[in-house]
Design goal:
single chain, alpha+beta, 3 helices, 8 strands
């Protein structure tokens, strides 16, 4: 928390949420090759502030969670939907190019439930998708 000098109250700082080192390595294995403003070195240390591609042999691109989700949607047609069921979050995965007779996308089990945050739910669904579906 930071003290806001103008209003004299505490506020939280909103930051970028990058994929974990483990998910960054999986993205690299699945040929994610998009420009990212952050990267991990081979020891898993996050470096921000420079553009990286996975084609660099000593770095793994570290996209934001949203960038990784967009790549899954646009390249592989998987959609991650997060819901809040107080006090926890859950994530569902859908295959967008497999629509049933009712106009619904195919739900891919399992549902990732009981996450403590939105980001935790997305991370679990990303990891599952990269390990098992692509």
């Amino acid at each position: 928390m930071k003290l806001n000098q103008k209003n004299k109250y505490y506020t939280t700082m909103i930051t970028e949420d990058y994929v974990s080192f483990e998910v960054a390595k999986l993205l690299n294995e699945k040929e994610f090759d998009e420009r990212s403003a952050a990267s991990y070195d081979l020891k898993g240390r996050l470096q921000e502030g420079a553009a990286y591609w996975n084609s660099t042999p000593s770095w793994y691109a570290a996209p934001t969670l949203q960038m990784a989700c967009k790549w899954l949607r646009e390249v592989h047609h998987y959609y991650i939907q997060v819901e809040f069921d107080p006090p926890t979050f859950s994530a569902d995965i859908y295959k967008m190019d497999e629509i049933d007779e009712y106009g619904s996308a195919e739900h891919i089990p399992p549902t990732f439930a009981n996450a403590n945050s939105y980001e935790e739910a997305v991370e679990a669904a990303l990891k599952y998708t990269l390990e098992n579906l692509i």
